[in-house]
């Protein structure tokens, strides 16, 4: 009887351990802002409309906290981040961000001076973050006093979807 109990316990532990290691491969959209969670459904609808592939995604909405942002980035969570601009001091490191020129118009790229950096290896100038203001479809019905800033971390395995979403937002702003 003891052996049967030990065998069952071992099986249960193996199942639990193997289940804990499975991170679902969803498109993760993170907001660190003053946007109330009651606007989540509207934001989700814009994401569904913007991302052409029938991709499962998860929307995370957090208050403006440096600590939580640093934890999420250190854990390599999130495929795209929408941040209150004051958090950029914790998140802006060009070597850790995807260049966003593909997601914005040439005019916007040329007229934007913020969040650009020159790649020391290639000498090319890249845009690593873009402002999202109240005219964005993502913020429909939301009036923010300060714009958000969008970034895509280099560790994202959904970079193409992140750029597609950002391109949609910028095109329809």
How many discrete domains?
Answer: 1
Percentage of residues assigned to helices: 25-40%
Kindly report how far apart the N and C termini lie. Answer: 68 Å
CATH class: Alpha Beta
Which CATH architecture? 3-Layer(aba) Sandwich
Number of strands: 7
Describe the sheet with the most strands. Answer: 5 strands, mixed
Give start-end ranges of low-pLDDT stretches: 3-22
The count of helical stretches stands at 6
Task: Give the overall silhouette.
Answer: globular
What structural class do the secondary elements suggest?
alpha/beta
CATH superfamily: Periplasmic binding protein-like II
Strand order of the biggest β-sheet: 2-1-3-7-6
Helix-strand sequence: HEHEHEHHEEEEH
The name of the CATH topology is D-Maltodextrin-Binding Protein, domain 2
Report mean pLDDT, rounded to a whole number.
Answer: 85
Rounded Rg = 20 Å
Proportion of strand residues? 15-25%
Protein name: Lipoprotein
Organism: Halalkalibacter kiskunsagensis
